[in-house]
Amino acid sequence: MAPESSSASREFTVGPLRQSDAPRCAELERILFPGDDPWPARAFVSELRQPHVRVYAARDGEVLIGYAAIGLLGSAAEPESEIHTIGVDPAHQGRGVGRALLAALLADAEAHGGPLFLEVRTDNDRAIELYERVGFERVGLRKRYYRPSGADAYTMRRPAPAEEEKQ
């Protein structure tokens, strides 16, 4: 079961995303990523249909306030994972919603094994700080990664738990 979290003023839960949530996710994408080709509803539906992808929703009551997806990739001998997306309604940011969604993704990645990767805009300081706090390191720069804005992205990597123990 995914983690449940609360803030001082209101509680929210994290659980599986439903296909019926796809339009709300697309709405949040347009708000959060207006210049960077936000995902349409059909992209979320497609993610839900992939057997190697886990997709989560954060809800305040019945209202979807955030979403996150992770791909569990590689072979049993060489597993790895990648975070596909995390988004939180701006009206609910700063309440721990992003941290709770990330915790669900980290639990999946750790159960799957291997390192975990993601891309993040180089100007998204809040996200970069959150990722670094949970063990991600910048390992590369992708120039003009986001379209159509042309914004750069860092590639970040979180080592597998076994790798962390060796260091």
From TrEMBL:
The keyword Repressor does not apply. It comes from the Bacteria. Residues 12-161 form the N-acetyltransferase domain. One of its GO terms (cellular component) is ribosome. Keywords: Acyltransferase, Cytoplasm, Ribonucleoprotein, Ribosomal protein, Transferase. The keyword Ribosomal protein applies. NCBIfam families: rimI. Belongs to the acetyltransferase family. RimI subfamily. This is Ribosomal protein S18-alanine N-acetyltransferase. It comes from Tsukamurella soli. The gene is rimI.
